[in-house]
Design goal:
It contains six helices and eleven strands. It has about 210 residues and is an alpha+beta fold. The two termini are about 25 Å apart.
């Protein structure tokens, strides 16, 4: 069953699955998608694919109130450019993910459309072939993409969705120095085509997979 899972994931991306040790050592992108992390995947499946030494039980920031940490699974915990965190629905069996996330400034994880940490709003808009909608900044869900507005990045899947959050560069977010940034604050949706969004051109700081 696990062999079948590995082969299916490899075929989905049109690439051969390299041995775990080689995968961890190469600097090729890792596919961040619902094919790699389907609803029924387990920590055991991931250990077989990425190597047991690269799949560890560790606290992750989900499963409770804001700021709480609970037991989950971390891939490549010692490499910030490859680190990935998972919180499980079945916490005892470590299977059926509830949340999968990579965060930071850059990462080897990449969506099928080649979006990764650091990809700019304008680049994403070009991939989507139309403006999309995202939440304002300086909130808990700051910069979350809420709708692709029927663009190329839209998905019909209700069980598993790749989502992302964007933020402007730090030097563009000082409230006293950036009237553009002040136009985009709060938990309300903005178009990526908003003039202030275009001027700030925020980039991806988190990719996450959400399940139902």
């Amino acid at each position: 069953m696990r062999i079948t899972y590995t082969v299916i994931v490899g075929m989905a991306f049109g690439v051969a699955i390299a041995p775990a040790a080689q995968s961890a050592g190469q600097q090729k992108p890792f596919p961040f998608s619902c094919a790699t992390f389907p609803p029924g995947v387990s920590a055991a499946d991931l250990s077989e694919r990425f190597g047991k030494e690269n799949v560890q039980t560790a606290p992750v920031p989900w499963g409770g109130a804001e700021g709480d940490y609970n037991e989950g699974t971390v891939l490549f915990s010692n490499d910030p450019n490859t680190r990935l965190e998972i919180y499980w629905t079945d916490t005892a069996g470590k299977r059926d993910p509830q949340w999968v996330s990579v965060r930071g400034d850059r990462s080897r994880w990449q969506t099928p459309e080649r979006v990764t940490l650091g990809t700019s709003l304008k680049s994403i808009e070009a991939l989507n072939r139309r403006p999309f909608r995202l939440l304002g900044f300086a909130t808990d869900a700051s910069g979350t993409v809420m709708s692709w507005s029927n663009g190329r990045l839209s998905t019909d899947s209700s069980e598993c969705r790749v989502r992302m959050r964007l933020r402007p560069a730090p030097e563009k977010t000082d409230r006293e120095l950036s009237p553009l940034y002040r136009q985009l604050l709060g938990e309300r949706e903005f178009s990526s085509g908003h003039p202030a969004m275009q001027a700030l051109d925020p980039s991806v700081y988190e990719l996450f997979i959400q399940y139902r």
